[in-house]
Amino acid sequence: MPEETKPENEFEEVQAEAQKAAEENVEIADEVRDITLKALSEGKLDGARVKGVIKAVMEGVSIGTSNKDTEVKSTLKEALSGVDEALAKTAEASKLAVEEALGRVKDYNKEELDQAIQNIKELENMFVDTVKTVSKSGSKLVKESLDDLITHAKNTGTEVGKHSKEVVAALSQQLAQVAQETVSASAQAARTLASNVAEAAAGFLSGLAESLKPKK
Description:
This protein has nine helices and no strands. By secondary structure, it is mostly helical. The chain has one domain. The longest helix has 33 residues. The protein is elongated, with a radius of gyration of 18 Å.
């Protein structure tokens, strides 16, 4: 997921929504999952957006739990579960986007698709590292809780980590098969492909998010 510069205030609304969810008596895991999915699907699904959304969501939840000052650790745990599930869906959406590119593009830069697959592999590290960054700016209780929870999650295995490994294995096999029938394109074609994959991934993620909403 190539890095792109994002406006500092782009995710303010996301943070506010996450804070509100933490302050109110809601199903925090599902609410945070939906907030995260919606934010990730708005625009290109690149590394900067993933990190920015995780940061905004967890900062919002951290502020909300501090304001409430009760059940801090349990609320943070549920929030992390929601973000984890959303990132697992992100891996699935990225897989669909890469598969679409493999199915339609005959002239492409193999290194660019290799990088797209590597980005999926790094989703768990993005999750862990960003939450660790958020913990440093929280209250003592929030920091201790987040550090403990994210360390435990990493040691026992996250949903996004497990799903990413499966996705990477499947895509690597497909890429090896397709690569035998294709040739490397120009750098400009590679950039175009990367942009198309990022946009397609966001579109697929939006569809996945919609499928999780309760049926009326």
